[in-house]
Design a protein that fits this description.
It is built from 11 helices and 14 strands. By secondary structure, the chain is an alpha+beta fold.
Length: 316
């Protein structure tokens, strides 16, 4: 029987069903009205205002944990492990097209801010991120530590500097990943160029973006001279389908910065990452010069950074 600890349970309880399905099973969602969703598998199961109810069975709940247990039939430990990313069950990748369609109608709400950021600093330092890069993000409001779970919160802003998106990453061994309620994926975590730039570097996650900044700094380059954007999730083109649009965050950023003429892709060096890079090139190569630069070693940019540091025996 699987064992889960108190911290894993608390992390799993944070997930509402709509966010869980948007992140991991977007094709399961069907929009019924502005604020109501159902699922393809159970059309009488309705999701609204942070709750869900399966009308044909007369059962409901609030959390993704309730859903996995009551509807999917998982045991409590299995459901916790599935949500916290430690299950042996393969999760589907988020689809580009569905990501542009499914956006939450909830009011955006950032997690409560902790008085200290020491857990986040320690976590990112362990991931190899340079302290100067961490401090820049903390001081600019792009990063903070939440309470009571001490998660790392990566904030995305609109053109007026208003927070519109937040990616949440656990700092413990539970590998919790999620988004703040009501997040708008068009405004995912990014760092604009300090001066006018025509180049945009694209990453799958905020940590990959910060890893790139660190590697640029270690090589003596000025890392904030180009635009840097992370995507709100991992994107995989639908098999056998032609995607009609690029990821929502990328589309929005290019719209806001029409001077950009060079797109540099730093997506993961795995099958989904390579497929997404090919799809983005197909969609945008007529508008932009596109350079595909996946990690030279390791699966992602952070793994490449850690390998680089380990080879040189440098302190993280």
């Amino acid at each position: 029987m699987s064992y889960v600890n108190k911290e894993q349970i608390e992390q799993a309880k944070q997930w509402d069903l709509l966010t869980y399905l948007q992140m991991y099973e977007p094709t399961e969602l069907i929009r019924c009205s502005r604020n109501v969703f159902s699922t393809r598998t159970h059309d009488s199961l309705k999701i609204s205002n942070g709750k869900w109810f399966w009308w044909s069975r007369g059962i409901g709940g609030r959390s993704a944990l309730d859903y996995l247990i009551k509807v999917r039939g998982l045991s409590f430990p299995e459901a916790v492990l599935e949500i916290t990313g430690q299950s042996s069950i393969d999760r589907p990748y988020m689809d580009i097209q569905h990501d542009t369609i499914f956006s939450s109608n909830k009011e955006f709400e950032l997690p409560e801010r902790n008085d200290s950021s020491q857990r986040v600093i320690a976590y990112l330092s362990k991931r190899g991120i340079h302290r100067s890069v961490i401090d820049f993000c903390l001081e600019s409001g792009r990063l903070y530590e939440s309470r009571p779970y001490h998660n790392a919160v990566f904030v995305g802003f609109d053109l007026q500097g208003v927070p519109r998106y937040a990616a949440i990453r656990g700092t413990s061994t539970t590998r919790y990943m999620g988004e703040a309620s009501g997040s708008d994926k068009r405004y995912s975590f990014s760092i604009a160029a300090q001066k006018n730039s025509q180049a945009l570097h694209l990453f799958e996650s905020a940590i990959d973006l910060l890893s790139y900044c660190t590697m640029e700094r270690l090589s003596g380059a000025d890392w904030n001279q180009a635009h840097l954007l992370s995507l709100a999730g991992i994107y995989k083109p639908s098999l056998g389908k032609v995607q009609a649009a690029s990821p929502a965050a990328l589309t929005q950023y290019l719209k806001a910065c029409p001077e950009i003429n060079l797109l540099v892709l730093h997506l993961d060096n795995d099958e989904p990452g390579r497929a997404a890079a090919l799809d983005i090139k197909r969609l945008l190569s007529s508008q932009l010069s596109i350079s595909n630069e996946p990690p030279r070693y390791g699966k992602d940019v952070n793994e490449m950074l850690l390998t680089y540091l380990n080879q040189r025996g440098q302190s993280r």
